[in-house]
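Hey L., structure's done. Input below.
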Amino acid sequence: MATMTGHAKGRDENQGRETAEKAKEAGSQVADKAREVGGQAMDKAREVGSQVVDKARDAAANVGDMASHAATTVGKKADDLTAGCGTGIKNLGERLEQKGPHEGMLGQASHAVAETLKQGGHYIEDSKLSGMADDMTQFIRRNPVPVLLFGIGFGFLLGRAMRS
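Output:
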């Protein structure tokens, strides 16, 4: 019976070692699978993150395009309105020329005002707001000192008027 017990003990130890080795091997397989699944999850997360960044970039580009289109539309509307004002001023000059006095000092003054209105209206109609801004920029570049002095004087007068 002692040999049987020793033999049973040995068999139990062998089974325990085999079970421990199988558990160790199973744990190693589980760890390998977990690493593989984790790697796949990381790859998928990178892919999804990249797609999100691409979608955000596309959305930002679309917003930029829409803003640019809106600014262009607003600029065109402003130019159209300015051209319409120029046409109105030019027409006013033509009516003044037709219906105003034609002789004497009053006729000469009426003619001069009508011509000035027509020329100014024609300029506004042709140049529109964007062209007038370009002309103003060129004028300031050609005459910086007088423009600066005018700005200082205008600011001074505006300040005095606001104070009283």
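The longest helix spans residues 2-99. The helical segments are 2-99, 104-142, 144-163.

-- N.
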